[in-house]
Amino acid sequence: MGQGDVHTSYDDESGRWVNRREGNKRASDSHDTAADASKRGQDLARKTGSEWIKHRKSDGRVHDRNTYGNDPHPPNG
Length: 77
What we know:
The chain is α+β, with helices and mostly antiparallel strands. The chain has one helix at about 35-50; strands at about 5-10, 15-20, 30, 50-55, 60-65.
């Protein structure tokens, strides 16, 4: 992976959903809805072959994730 994984989360300060690459302080983009932010976050991860991780608005815990590119732990079967 050339670039860090993409995290989609709710930013309390701005009141918007943001996508941020690991290692970056600033968000790559921001959106009014979780669905729009998730779609864009997945596109960003797909372009660089990295992992996309969505966090819950309520507690910040991981809600969903998907690996694009070379998955080091593919599912069996």
